[in-house]
Design brief:
heterodimer, A: 251 residues, 2 domains, 4-stranded antiparallel beta sheet, 12 strands, B: 305 residues, mainly alpha, two-stranded antiparallel sheet
Chain lengths: 251, 305
């Protein structure tokens, strides 16, 4: 038993020979009233005790994922001459935002097995087990989800966007669009050799509404009655003001 | 200048919203309509989620009708008794409308409901107004005077008769109640005040004198849309106050300009222009339903928001 454990340790050791040291240009992003998208710089280095292995090239895969939530995907069909929502599928778990950047095309950087394990490519990052059972044809709904979110800039694949210098230093920038939802995001870096993951590194990125946006959003959800009354008060006040200004100009 | 809307969770150009508010304000000033029936579809077109557009527009209408009704109170052209009867119906209707709205939202059919309602009502009202104003123009050319007759229809044979002194009517309370319910449902589903349905109903169905119709309908609209706003805010969390304020500011300024333009034009010309506008919006929405959309799929939160 002990011998077996030792064997594992020995086998595991070379894997730890290269380690990621990385950071983000900012650990939190605030969505303010004038938020118009943002760029996050992800940079780091590969630290190693031994000289650089030369058998296969080092690849870096960087992904940033937003909070996951269930999504209903609906398909329109023509019924009595008009296009109406008909079939739908529930995707259990889809990140609200997902961006993956790599040094080379993803298939070259990562084997299918490793992709399945680490859930790196967009289809793998989305889980639709429930939909598969419920409808039996979740594939097209998942594809539609990816297509729509890609179109909205929420799902991005940037192959070749990670710069790697001297097999040690790497950097990439992730573009956060303006239609971002708040929540806890996860940035993950994988380094691979021969399509196998050598080391992985994860860090949190906190994206929150700030200032008046945060205040209004929280008020609308936690104190809906006060929020509604405030909306009405503002409306009545504005209406009264308009009438007052109007009659002042008339007089 | 981009503004991130906290509830709609989209970033939009603030000047675009001010401009839209201004344009719709000009039209509402020119034609004396609330403008909700134009603003809500325009908000769909610029990418505001329909649920947020409907709820927020209700809030904006509170402001514009309140501004309008004050002037009518000064001129004593509000029939409070009739307004109250319409209001009771309106609140019941709005409550029912919200239930229907939420039920269809959970079914994923709320967009269809909203758009179909728009196509049907804008189509009917637009065509009626177009034909009516065309006839009016013809009549004006021929004789210069319009024929007027006192109608006595089935409305006058119903029970629960009530005296409405400001309107000079002695009719059953049932028809105004029904009109109120109907308009309330529309307000909740379509995010409109419902003036474009209520005003013709008051004139042609109830036989109210034209001078008290606008004030009374505005009076009713304030309360029904305020109720709708509260219902949407507390059950759906879809009232976006930032969006409402931006639309308000544009709308208020636009309405003043519009009123001045409106004074210079003839009533029949104004009505026919409005009819064409209404039909154009109706046509655009109808095409969206009839033509195959470029993206057949849409995303939504599971089981409502």
């Amino acid at each position: 038993m002990l011998r077996l454990a030792l064997l594992f340790l020995l086998a595991a050791l070379p894997l730890r020979a290269e380690e990621i040291v990385a950071d983000l240009s900012q650990s939190s992003v605030g969505i303010s009233a004038t938020f118009d998208g943002s760029d996050i710089l992800i940079f780091g280095a590969v630290s190693r005790e031994a000289p650089v292995p030369t058998d296969s090239p080092l690849q870096v895969v960087v992904s940033v994922a937003g909070p996951s939530e269930a999504v209903t995907v609906r398909r329109k069909d023509k019924r009595v001459g008009i296009w109406v929502n008909n079939d739908s599928a529930l995707i259990d778990d889809a990140p609200s935002f997902y961006s993956v950047a790599t040094t080379v095309p993803l298939q070259e950087a990562l084997s299918d097995g490793e992709d399945l394990h680490y859930k790196v490519s967009i289809p793998r990052a989305i889980s639709s087990v429930g939909a598969q059972i419920a409808t039996g044809h979740a594939q097209e709904f998942t594809e539609a989800l990816i297509r729509i979110r890609t179109h909205n800039g929420l799902y991005q694949v940037h192959e070749g966007a990670v710069e790697l210098m001297s097999d040690t230093l790497f950097r990439t920038s992730i573009d956060l669009p303006s239609n971002l939802t708040a929540g806890e995001y996860t940035a993950r870096i994988l380094i691979t050799r021969d399509q196998q993951v050598v080391d992985s590194f994860e860090t949190k990125l906190d994206i929150q509404k700030v200032g008046i946006e945060r205040w209004l959003y929280n008020l609308a959800h936690d104190n809906a009655i006060y929020y509604g009354l405030m909306s009405l008060f503002i409306a009545i006040a504005a209406g009264w003001l308009a009438s007052a200004v109007f009659s002042y100009f008339k007089a | 200048m981009q503004i991130y809307l906290p509830i709609a969770e989209v970033s939009v150009n603030a000047f675009l919203l001010l401009g839209l508010g201004g344009m719709v304000g000009i039209l509402s000033g020119m034609f004396g309509v609330g403008g909700g029936f134009l603003m809500t579809p325009l908000l769909f077109f610029i990418g505001i989620p329909p649920a947020v557009a409907v709820a927020t527009e209700a809030n904006q209408i509170v402001a514009s009708s309140f501004s309008g009704v004050l002037a009518h109170f000064k001129r004593k052209t509000v029939d409070l008794k009739m307004g109250t009867v319409l209001l009771i119906g309106g609140l019941v209707g709005a409550y029912l409308g919200i239930q229907l709205f939420n039920y269809l939202k959970s079914m994923g059919q709320v967009d269809l409901l909203v758009k179909l309602s728009y196509v049907v009502f804008l189509g009917i009202i637009g065509s009626l107004m177009f034909v009516e104003s065309l006839n009016a123009i013809r009549r004006a050319k021929k004789t210069g005077t319009a024929a007027k007759r006192k109608k006595h229809n089935w409305v006058h044979n119903l029970p629960f008769k009530v005296k409405f002194r400001t309107s000079g009517l002695y009719i059953s309370a049932i028809p105004p109640l029904m009109v109120g319910v109907f308009v309330g449902v529309l307000a909740a589903i379509m995010g409109v005040g419902g003036g474009f349905v209520m005003v013709p109903a008051m004139i042609y169905l109830l036989g109210m004198p034209t001078k008290v119709v606008i004030g009374t309908s505005l009076f009713q609209i304030i309360f029904v849309t305020a109720f709708t706003t509260m219902m949407h805010a507390t059950t759906n969390f879809t009232v976006d106050i930032v969006l409402a304020v931006l639309l308000l500011v544009g709308g208020v300024i636009g309405a003043q300009i519009g009123t001045r333009i409106g004074v210079k034009m003839k009533a029949e010309q104004l009505r026919i222009l409005l009819a064409i506008l209404v039909l154009a919006v109706c046509g655009k929405l109808a095409l969206d339903l009839l033509l195959q959309p470029s993206e057949l799929y849409s995303l939504g939160a599971p089981g409502g928001h």
